[in-house]
Amino acid sequence: PGAVGNALPSQVVDHYENPRNVGSLDRNAKNVGTGLVGAPACGDVMKLQVEVDENGRIVDARFKTFGCGSAIASSSLATEWVKGKTVDEALKIKNTDIAKELCLPPVKLHCSMLAEDAIKAALADYKLKQDPNKEEAEKKA
Amino acid sequence: ARRAAGLTPPSVARSDRSFRIDAQQLQRRFRSLQRAVHPDRFSRSPPEEQLYSEQHSSLINKAYQTLLHPLSRGLYLLELNGVEPAQETDSDADSVFLTEIMEINEKLAEPKNDDMLQEIETLIKVKQEELTKEVTAAFERDDLQEAKKLLAKMKYFANLEDKLKDKKIPS
């Protein structure tokens, strides 16, 4: 069921009232990627972190989001979804999937976009930490 | 200079709109407009006039609030100049700024005493004043892209200010 008027959909309420994976991982650990993103239109900030094992699989994820219920729910869902995925699989998570799962109304679609951006930023950070020289070479090319 | 003194959007059709305003003059104009349309004056008037009065009174309130606060005023000025407010996600390039916002949010989320709240409030105020100065300067030299970036930063601090106000309300 979708949102009625200003009421949050039940899926959003659940992730908002019982968010999963709130917290932090050690950003200095080599196998932890940290993504920090913000939505300038609404002033929401979102930090998402992933811990990746030696096989390139995400074994843990945490988030901290300061913003509306939909932003919190989107990042909570994002951390649930990345767990167990490889880095490349997690990069395929789209904001539209998040929005659909949470039945976000059009006015809150940007919250799911922010979560997608947070996942990408965390994974980009992780990749950079694995091969900083490669990144530098690519940047210079 | 004449400022954005017309309080309803269509009447702010001046070529010399500036970001800087005279708050007292704004307030005088607001009051004088409200005196003319306030519902109290129309309580015994026909329904169409009462409706007119309500709608315009409400619009005047909204316009006044928009122009009074630097953030909303700045965003409105961007809009008048055909510049969209920032929509793209802030990330890598802004990590220092975002980290700062995150840290203040985290401090606010902790249980605390009045002294700490006061410290955070002062910090937020100082930052807002700095940003307002920078936005004023950007508009004055017609650097709308810079104004847009600064207004985006102000939005984050406006949210913090709201959260702080909520914290101060005794529960």
Automatic annotation (TrEMBL), chain A:
The gene is Iscu. The keyword Iron applies. Belongs to the NifU family. InterPro entries: ISCU, NIF_FeS_clus_asmbl_NifU_N. This is Iron-sulfur cluster assembly enzyme ISCU. Pfam families: NifU_N. GO terms for molecular function: iron ion binding; iron-sulfur cluster binding. Keywords: Iron, Metal-binding.
UniProtKB/TrEMBL annotation, chain B:
Signal peptide: none annotated. This is HSC20 protein. Belongs to the HscB family. GO terms for molecular function: ATPase activator activity; protein-folding chaperone binding. It is found in: Cytoplasm; Mitochondrion. One of its GO terms (biological process) is [2Fe-2S] cluster assembly. Residues 94-165 form the Co-chaperone HscB C-terminal oligomerisation domain. Coiled coil: none annotated. It comes from the Eukaryota. Keywords: Chaperone, Cytoplasm, Mitochondrion. The gene is Hscb. It comes from Pterocles burchelli. CDD domains: DnaJ. One of its GO terms (cellular component) is mitochondrion.
